[in-house]
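Entry type: protein chain
Record version: 2
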Amino acid sequence: MNCFLSRPKFLTNDVALDLGIILVVGFLSITWFRGNFLIKSGDSFFGLSPNFQLTSNSYIWNPVVGSYAQEIGGLPYYLFMTFLGNIGVPLIVSEKMLFYFLFTFSGLSMYYLSTVLMGNHQKRLIGLISALFYMMNSFTLINIWGNIIDFSTLVFAYALLPVSLGLFIKGLNTKNFRYLFFILIAWLIGSVAWLNPAFMIPIVIVLFLYMSFFIMIERKNKAKIIFALKFCFILLLIWLFLNLFWILPAVSLIAQEYGTAQLSGSYLSVFIGTSSTASIMNNLRLVGYGTLYSNFLGDPYFTWSGVYLSNPFFIIMSFLIPILAFLALLFNQKDKYTFSLVSLAIIDIFVMKGAHSPFGELNLWLFQNVPFAGIFRNSYEKFAMIIPMCYAFLIGSSVWYLYDHLKKYLISFGDNQ
């Protein structure tokens, strides 16, 4: 009996406390509901009738937008929401459960990635700070939860990014194919992210970039490189096989879907327009989202935006985010993960600025010449989710090193008294 009740080895008292803190902080999502009303807009995947949504999205033809085959990829989500409705769970309760899960899972996802990156040198403070920062940072609170009336599938991709990278790294490091299964399970749970592939492609790009970094580091170890290539190939092969039910109809109708998407406006004009506020300085501070600077008939979309954009105190505080993040490289110059995350952050800052200078011409050329690049017409929205992941671990590392140095100084100072 004791063997069944004993907790896993990794679940130490400290880890259990950290996870408990993340789970409790997740209840902040319940406070977003005022008057016990649903949070819903037209451009949202959350349906008011789960049964109808399940039925209508089981076909490759959507009566509203025409062909929209990838909607079928969200069947696991639609099935679960329909199940909740059929057993009598009120819709408002289902939405609260969904928001809590997504908000909390993003923190747990980042916590897991942090433990993988720390390896045998587990530093509890890094994991907890990483998780809390990833849950609550400028990008998350503005683009995802602050823009909740336009609740998109981005939130699923955002929660999946850290755990996908963590499992990918763990699989390559341990040479264990079982992590393929865990990645696929995570992607199945977050299947709604595939309703807009532009949100999942950045995750694939991150895995590809890490794979390239891994091969460069292990270039003298042919066995590791061969395993890594096999790992990636099998992951791609199994994922394609499991998703053929919506990929095949999506491919056959891709020309129609591309034309439908253009109805929302010229890709090029949207790309240039959304790039206007995505300067390097704004991207560094995670405040490059165009709506933050916009208004409707004179009223700002975010009533509090003026304080954050013009108040000197808030502007100075916002620069502490990138400063703390890049300080990690100074504290831990020899750590390969710190170097890789700093490099990834720098690359992403230039990608998500779109047509904004400097080197905006290069991004503009790529946008105009790479097939189907139009799905990234809002480059900040699509790629900015990578930055919080990089920042989360780097800031956690910086805070830990500052704390450790301060503690050693105080102990040394006390001994000298």
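Comment: The chain has one domain: 16-32+44-416.
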